[in-house]
Amino acid sequence: MIDGSLPRLEFWCDLQCPDCRTALDDVRALRAQYGDALPVELRHFPLEKHKHAYAAAEAAEEAFAQGLGWPFVEALLARVEELDARGPQVLLDVAREVGADVEEVDTALIDGRHMLTVDADQAEGKAIGITGTPTYVIGGKRLDGGQSQDGLRERITAVIEAAKAS
Fold first, then answer.
1. Looking at residue 4, what is its pLDDT?
2. What is the domain extent for residue 127?
3. What CATH code is carried by the domain that includes residue 20?
4. What is the average pLDDT across 125-135?
5. For helices 102-111 and 53-65, angle between their N-to-C axes, nearest 10 degrees
6. 3 domain-assigned
7. Could you write out the DSSP letters of every residue in 52-112?
8. Mean pLDDT value across the chain
9. HSE on the CB side for 23, CA within 13 Å?
10. 58 backbone dihedrals φ, ψ, rounded to 5°
11. Considering Cα of 157, then 122, then 125, then 80, what sign does the dihedral take?
12. Measured between alpha carbons, how far is residue 4 from residues 1, 39, 166 in Å?
């Protein structure tokens, strides 16, 4: 790329998905390798089989609005089994742990202020052929980690390096 910027990495995620928790290792490694030069954007793709994933996406959007999105996402994905067992209360617990305004997160879940963002992500994901999570989109390429995450970080790195060279 002529201006030296790196392509944006979209991380399509279900915040109740154990595979997305594992995928965070790749996201962390890529951030460590490229730093702030690599823009990473969380995109929501809550799966029907995860009954709290939609609410988790809404809570994450509120955490992003408060400037605590990635800490919230990482803390929540570390507690996927607890979210399965305890439900939405875990969202408020995680918000409290990362220093978010818990009352505002709770209100956002009630008033649905982030529903359109989550719905738009999900609709766009379906439109570009995403069927599972985690999935990455970078440099116009969709890399599906829903079946296997083996080699995904290397493939993402190859796209980034090719973009840097052009």
1. 56
2. 9-165
3. 3.40.30.10
4. 95
5. 130
6. no
7. THHHHHHHHHHHHHTT-HHHHHHHHHTTHHHHHHHTTHHHHHHHHHHT--HHHHHHHHHHT
8. 93
9. 28
10. -65, -45
11. positive
12. 6, 13, 9
In terms of pLDDT, which residue wins out, 161 or 147? 161
Backbone angles phi, psi at 2, to 5 degrees: -65, -40
- 53, 133, 152, 153 from 48: Cα distances, Å: 8, 12, 24, 27
Provide the greatest CA pair distance for the chain. 49
Structure tokens belonging to residue 95:
């918000």
pLDDT tens digit string along 69-93? 999 999 999 999 999 999 999 999 9
Residue 1 in any domain: the answer is: no
Assess contact for 24 and 152: CB atoms under 8 A: no
Between CA 70 and CA 63 the distance in angstroms is 8
Two structure tokens written together for 100:
């978010």
